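Team,

Forwarding the record for the chain on the shared tracking sheet. I've put the sequence and predicted structure together so nobody has to dig through attachments.
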Amino acid sequence: MNAIFVAQNELERQLMSAQNGELAPETFLATLLDAEVFMPIYEPPTQPGGLQVSTTAQPLKVTTETGETVLVLFTSPERAKTFVASFPGYGGGLVTDLRWILQKLGVGYAITLNPGLEFGMDFEAQELAQLAAVPPVV
């Protein structure tokens, strides 16, 4: 049984409004670009003494049936729990703005926001490239 989706932050309120046709998609995208999102990150088992072996973050990416790479993001860490349970090692993550993610990871992939939840969106790689080109609001 699906739980009722209740917005927990401003990004989720705007996402719900956009999906319900109450907010222009362009307005939502402008908000999303500078909004904080949660990016699940792989946490390899630590070595004896708690030492971390890896120095690079491995964000959760899935591959579609057509071979497209899709970065998985959520509107909050709480929204990720059920989804990442199927991906051992991805219990932790990073909360940061989407613009930073696009700058650090590049734009050669698609994004899915809140996969498996009632309110979520998918973005093609082309859309992300255009979005990344939008200058920050000062």
